[in-house]
Amino acid sequence: MVRQVHSRDCDRSARRVERAGLHRRSFGLGAAALLLGTRHLLHTQSASAASTGFVPPGYRLVFGDEFDDPDVSRINENATGGRPGAPAWRSRYRHDRFTIINEEKQIYVDPAFRGTAGRPLGVQPFSIANGVLTIAANPADPVRVRPFVHDIAYTSGCITSELTLWRTYGYYEMRARLPLGKGFWPAFWLLTKRVVWPPEIDVFEASGVRPNDVHIGVLGPERTGNADTWITGAIGIADGFHAYGLDWSPESVAWFLDGREVWRRPNTIHEDMYILANLALGNRDPKFIPNPDASTPFPGRFEIDYIRIYARA
């Protein structure tokens, strides 16, 4: 049954984060060693000075999480809690946690997830500090966790607005820094409130072994208007925080990197969609996303400065 449309809007103005050197289905570790040498320094930097983002003219803010509130308990199974300016998020997809798609190698968890143990496993993939949400991917503990998650090798996290907010059309933007390393597959995307697939819109996907590329795409109803592409060489996904934007209108879908339009397609999706952000590991297609291995630099960190949604004024 489709629930009545509603939203937890917030009218907070944009206020933060300097553009420091500024995806889900989506690959060089040559630069990874140098990056890892400075990794601790990079992860202690705060994305804290002001950023207004790249919203086009004629839009108003209708939803936003700036991740200034460090309470991660609002990310949970049923999207309970939260407060104005710090919305609640669901910590899993709409199917159960043991249903793995795309032959991925992780299970999405939160601290209350019990697996088959009959008690919370206590694995926390989420943290908020200095105005940044971090989703961390790690090997599953071989004693405390893995026996109780069907021997799935890795834990990670996802957030969705499935239970709290869905809209038709708008401008969607995330500012984030993405992890490098074999197997990492971060994404920001949209699914329909109606329980059917497709449609799907990928604001972005990335691969940890393609440090300068971003994958974007759309799957229309009954696979009409399907299109996807790699945007190569436009940004370095791990060299700092970048803004990933999507302008979804009745006529078209347009993608933006740091405010610059990089692709546009005719739109065939005209129904409510909710947002998801996740850090997957591996894929059925190693040419798209290779599986993690001994070279993968855990923990993988998908760092999100903000998520904002705008509607036409």
Written description of the protein model:
This protein is mainly beta and 313 residues long. It has two domains: 151 residues, Jelly Rolls; 101 residues, no CATH class. Helices cover 5% and strands 35% of the residues. It is built from two helices and 18 strands. Strands 1, 4, 5, 6, 7, 9, 14, 15, 16 and 18 form a ten-stranded mixed β-sheet that branches. It is globular, with a radius of gyration of 18 Å. The chain starts with 28 loop residues before the first helix and ends with a strand. The N terminus is likely disordered.
Q: How are the secondary structure elements laid out?
A:
Layout (H helix, E strand, L loop, with lengths): L28 H9 L1 H6 L14 E7 L9 E2 L12 E2 L15 E3 L17 E4 L2 E8 L14 E3 L1 E3 L9 E8 L6 E9 L7 E6 L7 E7 L7 E6 L9 E7 L3 E6 L2 E7 L6 E9 L18 E13 L1
Parallel strand pairs: 2-3, 4-7
Antiparallel strand pairs: 1-18, 5-6, 6-7, 6-18, 8-17, 9-14, 9-18, 10-11, 10-17, 11-12, 12-13, 14-15, 15-16
Distance between the termini: 31 Å
Counted up, domains total 2
**Helicity level:** under 10%
CATH topology of the largest domain, by name, is Jelly Rolls
Question: How many separate helices?
Answer: 2
Under the CATH scheme, which architecture of the largest domain would be assigned?
Sandwich
Strand content: 35-45%
Query: Major sheet: size, sense and barrel closure?
Result: 10 strands, mixed
Low-confidence stretches: 1-50
